[in-house]
Structures are given as structure tokens and as C-alpha cells.
Design a protein that fits this description.
The protein has about 230 residues and is of the alpha/beta class. The protein has a domain of about 130 residues: 3-Layer(aba) Sandwich (Rossmann fold), CATH 3.40.50.300. About 35% of the residues lie in helices and about 25% in strands. The protein contains 9 helices and 10 strands. Helix 6 links the parallel strand 7 and strand 8. It is globular. The relative contact order is 0.19.
């Protein structure tokens, strides 16, 4: 279980998060929703140590994370997939994946590579291709697969649907649902596409100007037209 309590964070003099608190249940998808500039990406970056919290606590299980460096996160079972589908273009698909495997225990376990290829057959087909030739959807699969190479128990995923065709988005979200249901993976999903996020989420946190304004089961938010219209625009 991930527990965020009273977290505030800033970029210089600009406060991006104000006393944010929520719990992401183990083995569930928690969707973090809100408009552009609401603080969603900053929240993930603060959880993963890329941004230092000004105050508050982030705990994963019994481990306090607020002063843990980003480099230590994979060894703790935490993987962060930032927005932007960042791959190393000059390396092959397989080389990119193998780099992800080094983050957990400095070993590339063959069974992990086989597992990723089973989840993403297109990556297996293109394992020897350099990453720069991949489509946007294939790159998104590659960065998620690279994160899974570390066998995380917590996956922080930032805007996986951005710029992708609806068919590819549905494929990626179906995969996430399967990982949660079959492997017990805990997912914190930042997503601008609120409809897609609500389709797989168990719990939702809505941010507005860096503050939590909704923290409810996903089906409650999905069924509340007034809340959806006020904060999500549909």
C-alpha cells in the first residue's frame, strides 16, 4: 500500500502541491485525474524522489520514501514511467529492456525478458530493431516493458495514452488491468483521458491547483455527473 500524507512540493517559489494526501490500495489501480497544471505529474515525481517534498510523508508499506533517492526506487519494487515515452533511440528494443532489468538487482533475468515479450508480442518481433524506428504505441509499450523488467510491485505511470490511437490505448489499459488482476501489481495512473482511466481504476484522486478535491472509489466518481462535469469536463 502507498500512503501519501500532507505532502507539499514546490518548484522554486511556486507551490505545486498543497497538503496532498491519499492512499493507493495494494493490487489496485488508483487514477490521479485533473486538468493540465493540476499537479499530477509533480505528484508522481515527488513519490519517486525526482522532486523533494517540502513537507509531509510518502510511505510504501513500512518504508518512508520522502528522503529516498530515485536510484534506490527500483530496488524497493517501485517503477516510474514518466510522460513522454523516453527510450534510448540508438539502442535496440532488447537492449532498452535489459537496461530496465538492471535497476532491481543489477541482473537481467531471462524469465523477466520472456515475460515482457509475452505481454508485448510486437516487442519480441522487433527485439533487434533500434528504438527510433518504433511507432508511438510501440514506444509506449517499450517504456512500460522496460519498467516491468524490474518486477515492480508499484508502478507509477504518467499519461500512457498521450497521443496514441484509441485502439492502442485500449490495448495498453487492458494490459494494465491484467497485471493488476493476475500479478497483484499496484498502479498509480496519471491520465488526462479520464474516461479511459475510470474504465480500469478502482479508486480516483482528483487534483485541482495542487490540492485533492476528490478522493473516492472510481465507480462513485463515474456515477456522479456533477463531480465529473466540475472537475473532469464530461
Amino acid at each position: 500500500m502507498l500512503t501519501v500524507s500532507g505532502v507539499s512540493a514546490s518548484y522554486g517559489a511556486v507551490r505545486a502541491l498543497h497538503d496532498v494526501g491519499f492512499t493507493a490500495p495494494e493490487g489496485r489501480v488508483t487514477a490521479v485525474l485533473g486538468a493540465n497544471g493540476a499537479g499530477k505529474t509533480t505528484l508522481l515525481r515527488t513519490i519517486s524522489g525526482l522532486v523533494r517534498a517540502d513537507s509531509g510523508s510518502v510511505r510504501f508499506g513500512d518504508r518512508e520514501l520522502t528522503r529516498t533517492s530515485p536510484e534506490r526506487m527500483p530496488a524497493l519494487g517501485i517503477a516510474h514511467v514518466p510522460e513522454g515515452r523516453g527510450v534510448i533511440s540508438e539502442l535496440t528494443v532488447e537492449e532498452n529492456l535489459r537496461l530496465g532489468g538492471l535497476g532491481r538487482d543489477n541482473r537481467v533475468r531471462p524469465e523477466r525478458l520472456d515475460r515482457v515479450f509475452a505481454l508485448f508480442p510486437v516487442l519480441k518481433e522487433r527485439r533487434s530493431a533500434t528504438a527510433h524506428v518504433l511507432s508511438g504505441g510501440e514506444r509506449q509499450m517499450l517504456v512500460i516493458g522496460r519498467a516491468l523488467m524490474a518486477s515492480p510491485t508499484l508502478l507509477l505511470l504518467d499519461e500512457p495514452s498521450l497521443g496514441l490511437a484509441p485502439r492502442v490505448v485500449a490495448q495498453i489499459f487492458d494490459l494494465l488491468s491484467g497485471l493488476v488482476a493476475d500479478d497483484g501489481l499496484t498502479v498509480v495512473l496519471v491520465e488526462q483521458n479520464a474516461r479511459s482511466a475510470l474504465s480500469i481504476a478502482h479508486r480516483t484522486v482528483v487534483l485541482n491547483l495542487g490540492r485533492v478535491v476528490v478522493d473516492e472509489p472510481a465507480d462513485v466518481l463515474a456515477g456522479d455527473e456533477q463531480l465529473r462535469h466540475a472537475y473532469l469536463g464530461f
